[in-house]
Amino acid sequence: MPKSYLEENVHIAAKKRMIDIFNTFPKIYVAFSGGKDSTVMLHLALEIAKSENRLPLDVLFVDLEGQYNTTLEHIEEVALNSEEINLHWVCLPLNLRNSVSVFQPHWRCWDPEQSKDWIRPMPQHPQVISDQDYYPFFRFGMEFEDFVYQWGNWFSNGESSTCLLGIRSDESLNRFFSVTTNGWRGRNWMSKASESLVFSYPIYDWRTEDIWRYVGKKKIKYNKLYDYFYLCGISIHKMRICQPYGDDQRQSLAYYHQIEPETWNKVVRRVHGVNFGAYYSKTAVLGRIKVVLPEGLTWKRYTYLLLQSMPEITRNHYAGKIKTFLRWWENNGFSLELVPDQGNLKLENSGKLPSWRRICKCIIKNDWWCRSLGFTQTKKTYETLYAKR
Question: What is the pTM of this model?
C-alpha cells in the first residue's frame, strides 16, 4: 500500500483525529510507556480532553520492572500527581520476551518467587496495582500482549471504547502495514480489536523529526533517557526505551551499563543473558552483521549442531518451526532434497527461496518468533511453551 500525502501538516491532522475520537467514543484511554511517541500523544490527548471537558483522562502504564529508572522518573513527573490523569500503574507478574538468551527466551517481571532479586522494589504509589486478584481476567504469567488486550476489554466493560497507541508507520515496514491495512469505519488509522474495543493511532503518520519538533515547540517534558542515548551516539531513529531485552530493543542494550550502572548490576542478576546480549548485540551473533559459516561445516550441519546445544524446550520450539517451514515449501514445489544449503541471498532475504543458511541464520539471531522464516507471533506459542514448563 503506497503512502499518500495530504496538504495539511501532521500536527493539524492528528488534532482532527483526536477530536474525531473524543466525539466517537464514550470511553478513552492512553497506553503510556514513557517513550517520546506516547508522551507526545498523551499531551495531544490531554489538550483535546480539556477542550471537550473529558478530564481526567485514563492512562495505562504497564511497569515491566526491568526498565530504566530514568523512564520511571518521567512517568512520575508527567502522570503520577496530575489531576488531569487517572493513572493505572500495573505491576503484575507478566511473561516478557528475552531475545538475548536461548536458556530463558522469556522472563517474568514482578515474579513474587523472585522478589529478593527484583531490579527495584515494588512501587508504593496509590495508583499502583500489584494485587493479582484485582483484575478478573488476570492469569499468573500472562503474555504481555494478551494482558493489554484483555485490559482494554475490561476497561470498555461492553461500552464503545478506544485505546490511543503511539505507534508510527515510519518506525518500520511492519508497523506501516499494521496501522494502515485494516481500518475501522473508513478510518485507516484505526483497527478493530474486539466488539467494544478499537485501537487508534492518531500520530501514525508522524516522523521521528516531527515528534522532536513538537517537543521543542511545545516545551513539554520528555524522557531524559533520550539525552543519554544521544550522548552515546545513538541515532534518533534507533532510540528505544522499552524493556531492552526484546528483539528490536536489544540493539541498545550495550549502553545500559553506561547510562545506569547501578541498575545494570541488578539487571544482570535478574535476566538471563543480558551481559551476553550487551557484548554481542552489535556482532554477527545477535546483530545484523553478516553471519559466517564455521570452516568444515555445511549450513545444514551447523543448524543441527546449534539445535543440539539448546535446552530441550527451546530446541523443540525451533525444530517445530523448521518442520513447518520445510513442509510449507514442500507443498509449494520444494521437496526436502531440493532445499539448497546456500541459495541466492537476495531471493532468501525476500522470502522467495528456502535454504539451510536461511534457517541457520534464524537460530543464530535468536529469532524466537522465526519472523525471518515467514512466521508471526502467536498466543498459542506462548501457551504451549509455558504449559510444558
Answer: 0.74
